[in-house]
Structure prediction request, 449 residues.
Amino acid sequence: MRRVPVVLLAALLAAACGSRAGRDEARGPQTEHVSTAGDDAGSAVAVPDAAVEPRIAEEVDAAADEDPAIDAPAPPRRVVIQAAGDYLLHTRVHNSARFHAAVDADPDIAATEGYAYLVYRVKPVLARGDLNVFNLETPLATERNPQSGDPPMLNGPPIAAVSLVRAGFHVASTANNHAYDQDLEGVVETRQAAMDAGLLVVGGGANGDEARAPIFVERNGIKIGILAFTETVNRTTLVERSSGSVPQVAIWRGDADLETIRSIRRQCDLLLVFFHWGGEFDMVPNRFQRQTAADLCAEGVDLVVGTHSHTLEEVRRLEGPDEAACVVAYSLGNFLSNQGLKYRVGWQNPDPDRAQGIPYTRDAAMLRVTYEEDPEGRLQLAALEAVPLWTENNWLDRFGVENFENDIWVAPLFASMADPEQDRYDALYEERLGEIRKALGDDVTIVEE
Prediction:
């Protein structure tokens, strides 16, 4: 392959480098460094344009004929991050998995003891993401405490994590109020079960350092840092605040954690923070959520994935440093649960128990955030979308049914309501789509899949 003379190549580079420094600074860890040709390169600048330009064009064209890729610029980097809300394995959800493990012909459902049945309908949506994350709000551990009480104790088998990986998830947060439901040992067992299944885990570990450690994931040449925090835990007597050597989850510490975030942000191209916060069954974020979101955005966090309310709350596009976009999803609702089991469209439920009666606990969304590299090498928010989800629950069909079995599963709203055999869902579809749009707000574009 013919080579461009050093002197002429230096002249070409010198003419093109006017804005290069700004681009390198923006890309941080992905910075490309251009070597110079030495002191002799300066003399090339004085060569008259008429003498230089034809020769440069000739040499470059010849090289391109032999290697077409030599002049092709690298394609802009692009990544799609998708986030879901709380994965809750209540007793009836377990029952649904076990029933379908015994009766369904799908080998994947049998191989996962029925837990794939609960989530497989979301698999096409997850296939669109480069990085898919969710909140694992159920310990996957030895059952030391039965699933009862108020608030309930939760637990599930490790095989449930396998079903989530097969569906397309990559990262789980365990920083939430149910993290200690199966005691301190359950924190470690849950982390290990999820990792054994192939999930990356953030927010909980064998000690304080492990619980607060970030994870880094690279997708399409983009380094993504991930942290997780919870505002509260249920079993506060198990929290050891004076020692970092016992199993724990990352309970928010305010300024100390903001300092950690500031440090981690310098080590990655994008930073995602899970936050389990706010009030249960609230429909709007409270003052703590809004102030903390502002603090996170000010430190350069690119995406905040909120959970805990069991309902959808708004998704906002806030402003971070240097006018960069900071996306805050205050709550993505329940990805899967047994809540809202008494709801049916058109029926005014007299039950005051909001967990069982209100429909909003069955509304959810798969948030889809797309980042693309601009001509200056900076990653910019390119699209902010959401796929509406709905958890189907047949609890109200049990009356008059012999040998009734729970049937609970989550699916994209458009898919679950499109079944021609489910005409009774026409009104429900229209109602829930409208409520989901209203909850998420105008900053988000609703998409079908």
